[in-house]
Amino acid sequence: MMATRIPEAYIEEVRNKTNIVDVVSQTVQLHKQGKNLFGLCPFHEERTPSFSVNEEKQIFNCFSCHRGGNVFKFLMELEQISFPEAVIKVAQFSGIPLPEAVVQSRDSVQNSLNSQLQGLYTQAQVLYTHILLKTKVGEPALAYLQNRELAAEVIDEFSLGFAPNQGNVLLDYFTSHQVARELLVRSGLFVQTNDGRLIDRFRNRVMFPITNQNGQVIAFSGRILTASENEPKYLNSPETQLFQKRETLYHFSQAKQSIRESKTAILFEGFMDVISAYKAGVTNGVASMGTSLTSQQLYLLSRAAQKLIVCYDGDEPGQKATAEALKLLKNESFEVGIISLPDKQDPDEFVKAHGAAAFQKQLSQNVLTPIAFQLQHLRSDYNLNLDGDRLAYVQAALQDIVTIDSSVEQELYLQQVANETQLDLTALKNEFETARVKYAQKQRATQRQQQQTQNEDREVPTPALNVKLDRAAISERRLLHLAIHQENVLLQLTSDEQFQFNEPQIQKLFTSWVAYLRQEGSHSIAGFTDQLSSDEVSLLMGIEMLDLPDEVSDEEVADYRRNINQAQLQAQLRQAQLKVKNASNIGDDQAAAQWFSEMLNLKRQLTNS
């Protein structure tokens, strides 16, 4: 909590002056669909968009994970921060000056463990950069970077730094600032010796800060400055609660705006490849964390990019890594392209040898399709001057070509294989037809197996889910929606002392809305959500995102109320029937007669309602 409470008037000002679409678009690629904008939910992995934003109401909702709320709630969920932190971040995003009292106590917001860890990483990055640029001990590292033709603006863009070999510079710095030992241990920035001492993890290394998708430093990778047989060339931070390699892409936070604008991401193999590409004017490059490409990283990219170009090293390991990446990409929705650089060069070597213009030309004019790359890579495994290798290559190539949907592409690559192997095209097509039939049979068998598995795994809907779909439940949600957006409906319900919603959560939302309207200031759904619990926000967002008109006829309102009243009477009738049965079982004829009379009365009311 902040020492100084943020004034309600200021919170309202920030909310009213900020468009939630602008904030959400920094993370989610949104597309207009009807009244709302839709995209892939940033809170869970999905392939079909279920995340929506209503610009008019300034709210968001995910129909799958049921998270929802206003712009503050979005940042709270996304970055796992408190409400005051979210208000400050949105204010800074919109350029709204903070109240002086809030500025003075802002540091007290940094209380959560995540915030404290991120604060350590940020301080470490600033210190490492200072050592690189401003100290004598950093001069060898700066010379190394300058020899690699990294100008000052590039060093600044990537916040590069240097961890010296002398002493425990980082430990001494944090100790002098009285940082708790437990936090230092959790950070992964230090190694604990057998006798319990802490020492700097990174020594004699050029430091590459690693950021999350919001641009916050969460880890480091250090490249050894002076080669050593006992030390790895690159050393990464260990995984922490903030940093998981499989979920992180190097340079993504800086590149995502360029990726969105071009709808294209370029995937490189290493950090220096990303930096070299940036020097060459390619700003939409990212790299995985020294490990194989993961589905989590692809999901991160899918929220910003429609096309993915893989530009790994041109040597054999790089080409094998490309082939592995293509296997993972088979089930993804990206338009995929591959760059195979000549002379087995990596992007850094190519830029140095041929220049920025030539590299940009490679990326725009020499992009291979996945099948073209696979055939090229496959061909390198065979000697086409030998009959046995030629036949083996043809069989392997056909297994790739049958996966293509386009008959025109199939024709193109069959012609290519026929020319390479000097085989008759008609004979090759006959062989292809046999392979195609077998592939189709295999696909159908796989689909049947998947369907069977899905049927076995499908859960039987619970009674609670069915209740939500009955007529009365639907009527309650629609009537609450109207009461919020149509004043005459609200007056009609509040003036009827006998009226009450059946579902306690719906009734509580209604009561809270009425109380909210009595408060001073402007009133909106976005503002209302700040006063609700997470469960209440989830229910309200589901109702607000329904495709309903804000105004309906009096007859429809009466119909909703009739459905709700009938549900109440039916519940009372079931209770009366149970009372009759219980009284009869114990021989209490008087009570049984009273409840029977009540039962008949309820049946008459149901008939007349």
UniProtKB/TrEMBL annotation:
A zinc finger (CHC2-type) spans 41-65. Residues 441-461 are annotated as: Disordered. Residues 263-344 form the Toprim domain. Binds 1 zinc ion per monomer. CDD domains: TOPRIM_DnaG_primases. Keywords: DNA replication, DNA-binding, DNA-directed RNA polymerase, Magnesium, Metal-binding, Nucleotidyltransferase, Primosome, Transcription, Transferase, Zinc, Zinc-finger. Pfam families: DnaB_bind (PF10410), DNAG_N (PF08275), Toprim_2 (PF13155), Zn_ribbon_DnaG (PF01807). Its EC number is 2.7.7.101. It is an enzyme of class 2 (transferase). It catalyses: ssDNA + n NTP = ssDNA/pppN(pN)n-1 hybrid + (n-1) diphosphate. It comes from the Bacteria. Residues 441-454 have a biased composition (Low complexity). Signal peptide: none annotated. RNA polymerase that catalyzes the synthesis of short RNA molecules used as primers for DNA polymerase during DNA replication. NCBIfam families: dnaG (TIGR01391). HAMAP family: DNA_primase_DnaG. Belongs to the DnaG primase family. Contains an N-terminal zinc-binding domain, a central core domain that contains the primase activity, and a C-terminal DnaB-binding domain. This is DNA primase. It comes from Lapidilactobacillus gannanensis. The gene is dnaG.
